[in-house]
Write a structure and sequence with these properties.
Blueprint lengths: L4 H18 L2 H11 L4 H28 L2 H21 L3 H30 L4 H31 L6 H5 L11 H18 L17 H8 L2 H32 L3 H27 L4 H21 L2 H15 L2 H10 L6 H10 L3 H16 L1 H5 L2 H14 L15
Length: about 425
């Protein structure tokens, strides 16, 4: 089959947009808290609204793709995300923020379900490992870039810059809420993606029987298997950990060390994602020379040490330690996901849908951290991450995949 590199490029752009929009929630956390006068618990509801959308939309989206097609679902996803971004941009308050983040989350969940099988078809099965890694690097790059764009826009709007885009944004953005400018930017990006998708011609994606999302009874049957529940909890814990650090980091640095969330805090979050990307590159090399379970243990223990330094270290130590957590978390998601799929011998499409639903960990853990933060302080609330990261560490000891990752030392074909 002829490879469609235009569609591959479009998918890479989609990965960039998903990451650019998704991972800005953390740097904005102090702004939400200050401008909407929120407690930690109420602040935790915002990422809850975003990530619960994955729980709501992931499995239905995988079924809808088979009824319609990838182009329809992707264009619909950007319409939903556009409406969400526009809602908060036009009417900024706590309730619209919750609804906005839920709608954007629904759009992002719909996209996530579509783009991986589409990437395999458009780029070729033989290139899928390479294109998947490239997509993850682009995803990480966008997560690094979005907090820097946030800082740039806020500083220019606060400085009353009248150049270019800022002359358009000045009358649209409330003077006391310069960060709302990001949601105008997100609305424009979603509209742009909608138009690009509308004029793009998509290849037909043919899923192998095992890749298709089965009916509800298949999902129910899978959930009766202990190994499926164990890996669902694993994905739940991973996303809870990732978002627990990235979402609360800027607020923690402001609260305990008085770092400015619009500059220093935002940059710390950017470096968290940037180092996660760098760690991912190193992880790719290490996976070629050692068992993935050992690598998971090897990276998770330093992640726990860096988290401890972030929570209990001095201002300067904390500022550097939190981003370093990102470096050591880099291998967790791909290793856990691949161990999961390698631990069952059928219904991989339905199992992948269940695993993606585990992204609701990003919702639940934030509310738990916020609630504990209200009762005992944010430092104590963030200590909940020890539980979720501890579970990830345990996988390295109990995982029994049917197929282990191939290393350069394997002699068997």
């Amino acid at each position: 089959m002829k490879r469609n590199y235009y569609i591959v490029a479009l998918i890479m752009l989609t990965f960039f947009v998903i990451s650019f929009i998704t991972n800005i929630i953390g740097p904005l956390s102090p702004e939400f808290i200050k401008d909407f006068k929120l407690s930690d618990l109420l602040a935790g509801v915002l990422p809850f609204a975003f990530f619960i959308a994955y729980g709501v939309m992931s499995i239905p989206s995988s079924m809808l793709v088979q009824k319609y097609n990838e182009k329809v679902i992707m264009t619909a996803a950007f319409v939903v995300a556009f409406l969400g971004a526009l809602l908060l941009a036009v009417e900024p308050n706590y309730l619209t923020a919750i609804l906005s983040l839920f709608l954007i989350g629904c759009g992002m969940a719909m996209l996530q379900v579509v783009i991986n099988p589409l990437l395999r078809t458009a780029g070729g099965e033989e290139n899928y490992a390479f294109t998947s890694v490239l997509a993850q690097l682009i995803f990480g790059g966008a997560s690094f870039l979005s907090p820097l764009v946030y800082s740039y826009m806020v500083l220019n709007l606060n400085g009353k810059s009248s150049a270019g885009i800022f002359s358009v944004l000045q009358p649209l953005v409330p003077a006391n809420l310069p960060w709302i400018s990001l949601y105008w930017l997100f609305a424009v990006i979603c509209l742009f993606m909608f138009v690009v998708l509308l004029v793009s011609k998509f290849p037909k994606v043919v899923l192998a029987h095992d890749e298709k999302a089965g009916p509800w009874k298949t999902h129910v049957m899978l959930f009766k298997k202990p190994v499926v529940i164990l890996y669902f909890i694993a994905l739940f814990c991973y996303v809870g950990t990732e978002q627990g650090v990235s979402y609360w980091m800027s607020q923690f640095l402001f609260l305990y060390h008085k770092y400015d969330p619009q500059t220093t805090g935002a940059h710390a979050v950017a470096y968290f994602w940037g180092l996660m990307t760098a760690g991912g590159v190193l992880g790719l090399f290490l996976l070629k020379i050692m068992d993935s379970r050992k690598l998971l243990v090897l990276f998770t223990i330093p992640a726990l040490i860096a988290l401890t330094c972030g929570l209990f270290g001095s201002a300067e130590v904390s500022l550097y330690a939190f981003p370093i957590v990102g470096f050591f978390m880099s291998v967790m998601y791909p290793i856990v996901f691949s161990l999961a799929l390698s631990s069952v011998n059928e219904h991989h499409g339905s199992f992948a849908g269940i695993l993606v639903t585990g992204i609701i960990g990003g919702a639940v853990v934030q509310v738990l951290i916020g609630g504990l933060g209200n009762l005992f302080g944010l430092r104590a609330g963030m200590m909940f991450i020890y539980i979720t990261m501890g579970y990830i560490l345990s996988i390295g000891f109990w995982a029994r995949p049917l197929v282990t990752n191939k290393t350069i030392f394997d002699t068997k074909e």
